[in-house]
Amino acid sequence: MKTIGLDIGTTTVCGVLVDAETGRMLASRTLPNDAALPGSQPWERLQSPARLETLCRSLVDAWADEYPDVAGIGISNQMHGMLYLDAHGEAVSPLATWQDERGNRPLETGVSYAARLSALTGYPMATGYGFCTHWHHLQNGTVPAGAAKLCTIGDYIALRLTGETAPRMHATNAAGFGLYDLRTGGFDRPMLKAAGIAESWLPAVETAPVCAGKTPLGQTVTVAIGDNQAGFFGSGSGEGAVLVNIGTSGQVSMLADTAETGPDIDARPYLGGRMLAVGCSLCGGEAYAALKRFFQRAADLMNVKPGPLYAAMNAAAEALYDAPGRLNGLRVDTRLCGTRADASLRASVQGLGLDTFTPEHLTLGVLCGICDELLGYWRAMPAHAEARRLVGSGNGLRKNLLLRRIVSEAFGMPMQVPLYEEEAAYGVALLSLHTLGLYAAPQDAQALIPYQNAEG
Fold first, then answer.
1. 237-417 — its CATH code?
2. Are the C-beta atoms of 267 and 277 separated by less than 8 Å?
3. Are 134 and 119 in contact (CB under 8 A)?
4. pLDDT tens across 428-456, in order?
5. Whole-structure pTM value
6. Per-residue confidence band for 326, with pLDDT thresholds at 50, 70 and 90
C-alpha cells in the first residue's frame, strides 16, 4: 500500500510517494508553481486555481497509474490565502495568496484595512489573511458574482479530487484566515458579526485529520492542513522537540498545551488538540543571501570574478568559528526586514573594531545573528526548558553545516535532520496513514521518519 503527499507552495508544488509499511519515500517530484495571474491592481497577488489543480492532478495521476495500490492522498498548502466558491464547489475567483497586499491599503481615515479590521474584532489581522482579503472585498463591493463560500487552495484541491461540493477546512488552515478563537477551536462568530461577515461564508471546520472524501478510484483524501504544521509533523517533531527551520525566512516551533505562548510568539492549532508555539523571523537565509549579494557587488566594483561565494564565505567563517577568541567577534542583528510585530525595525552591527572589520567576522556574525533571533523566540516560549531534542529543517540548515553547528551549540542539543527534504508533503503522506486507519494516532506514524546523522 502507498500514499501520496501534496504540498501546494507559493513557488512550487511538491508531491511524494510513500510506502505505507516502511515510510520510505519511493519517489518525489517538485513542479514550478506557474499559476501566477496578473492582477488588475498593483497590490494583488493572485494564482489560478485551475492551473494548481492541473499541477496536482499531474502528480497524482502519474503515480496512481503506475501504482494501483495508492490508497490515500494528503494535502498541505500555503496558509492564509483564500478563494471564493459557488454553491456547487466551483471556483469563482483566483486564489489571493498570503502575499496579497490589499489589506495594507489605507481607508479614508488613513488606517489600513488590516488595522481597521483588527480594531473592530480585537484580533491581530494582517494583509494576506483570508478574512482580511474578504473584508476588503466586502467594503468595496467586489465580491465575485455567485460566490457562496471561502476556502484555502488545499481545501479546493480536496474538493476537485473527490468531487465533493462543500469545503471542509482543518483548524490549522482556519486559524490562518484570522478571527479564529484558539480556546474554543472555531471561528469567533460574534467578532465576525461585528465585522459584518456573515456565517454563511464559513466552511465546516475540522479539528482532526479526517477524510475529506474519496477519489473516483477509491483513494481516501485527508482534509488539507497548513504547511507549517505539516512540516512540523513530517520532520518527526513531537513532545519535547524544538524544530528550527531556516529557509528564506526562519521559524522555531514547539508543542504547547495553551494559547498563552509568550511575547512575539504565535499560537497555532496543531493535531490532537495541541497547539504549536511558533516564533518567526522574516530574514532567515535571506540575510545570508543579502550578504552574498554584498560581496558580489564589491567584486563587481573591482572588476573581479569570484569563485563560488557561498563556499568561500562558509570556509572563512568556519575557520574563524574554530579559532580561539571567536566570542569577541561581531554581534549582528539580522532583522533586515524588521519583524512581524514591527516592520520598521532594521539590522545592526555591534563590536566593530580594527581587528573585527573583516569579511570573515561579518560572515560569521550574520550566521550567528540568524540563529540568535530564533534563539530569542525559543527562550520566550513557556515550555522551552522542557526541550530535550533539536530537529533542523529547511535548505538554510541542510546546505550549511556551519549554521547547523552554530544552532546546535546555541540551543545546547545535537541536531537531527530528517532524511527527506520535503517535510510538509512527506508529513501529509504519513498523516493519511492515520486517516486510513493504519495508525490509531497521527504521532504513531512519525516512528517511520528516518534521519541523517547529527553531523549531516
1. 3.30.420.40
2. yes
3. no
4. 999 999 999 999 999 899 999 999 864 44
5. 0.88
6. low
Given the candidates 3.40.50.2000, 3.30.420.40, 1.20.58.220, 3.10.180.10, the CATH classification of the domain at 2-228 is: 3.30.420.40
β-pairing, 275-281 with 266-269? antiparallel
Find the mean pLDDT for residues 401-417.
97
Separation between Cα atoms, residue 162 and residue 255, nearest integer Å: 32
| End-to-end alpha carbon distance in the chain | 31
Domains of the chain, by residue range, sit at: 2-228, 237-417
CA 7 to chain centre: 10
Residues 6 or more apart from 302 whose CB is under 8 A from it? none
Whole-Å CA distances, 66 to 23, 62, 73, 113, 172: 19, 6, 15, 49, 32
- Residue position matching grid coordinates 467594503: 139
Distance separating alpha carbons of residues 288 and 317, to the nearest angstrom: 12
